[in-house]
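Example S7 (structure tokens).
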């Protein structure tokens, strides 16, 4: 069970296919150019999976080193670095969710549970959630809501505000997002925002496609 996608399970050969079919923003489409040749160059450096690739692209110095070894440009490798790092997004802070009372966030903070990554193992099953409810002095209904927000926060690009929006729109688990129709999800969220003004960002149908695609890569570990 893991909060994040297990990058060790994605071989470089498998990642080629992922990139070929993935929805990429314009600045990322460089990754499809000469994809077989480029990733084969990376494989030759004894980099067998995406986790090892993430380590090889950890900082500027390593990017430059890999560029020299593979003859791949720094620009290409920096884009690849951003995409790979995106599989492990920064966890959302509990206190930032619009629908979590300050008292709830403060009680969890006393237990050292300040963000969704730290909270994850405590909300995986009904018994774990019941135990946390007793330890923190928080109603089980609030713990269940936090479980759903935590689950949604695992999805790439889902910040604290959009996790709340997804919850309010009825897409309250990573599994529901993964199984959603992107156009229907877009229309539902657009209508909800028009009625309640939940966010100001310009979120389009293509953003919903990317969100659904990201959710499909997650292990669905939370037992509701």
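Recovered sequence:
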């Amino acid at each position: 069970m893991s909060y994040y996608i297990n990058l060790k399970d994605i071989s470089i050969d498998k990642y080629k296919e992922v990139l070929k079919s993935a929805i990429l923003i314009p600045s990322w489409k460089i990754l499809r150019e000469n994809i077989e040749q480029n990733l084969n160059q990376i494989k030759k450096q004894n980099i067998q999976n995406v986790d090892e690739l993430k380590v090889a692209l950890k900082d500027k110095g390593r990017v430059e080193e890999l560029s020299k070894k593979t003859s791949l440009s720094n620009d290409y490798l920096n884009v690849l670095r951003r995409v790979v790092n995106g599989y492990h997004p920064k966890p959302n802070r509990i206190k930032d969710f619009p629908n979590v009372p300050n008292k709830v966030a403060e009680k969890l903070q006393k237990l050292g549970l300040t963000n969704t990554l730290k909270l994850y193992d405590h909300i995986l099953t009904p018994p774990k959630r019941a135990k946390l409810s007793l330890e923190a002095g928080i109603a089980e209904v609030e713990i269940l809501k936090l479980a759903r927000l935590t689950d949604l926060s695992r999805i790439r690009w889902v910040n604290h505000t959009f996790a709340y929006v997804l919850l309010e729109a009825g897409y309250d688990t990573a599994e529901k997002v993964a199984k959603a129709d992107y156009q229907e999800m877009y229309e539902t969220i657009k209508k909800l925002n028009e009625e309640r003004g939940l966010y100001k960002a310009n979120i389009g149908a293509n953003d919903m496609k990317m969100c659904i695609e990201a959710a499909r890569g997650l292990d669905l570990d939370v037992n509701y």
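Notes on this example. The chain has a mean pLDDT of 96.
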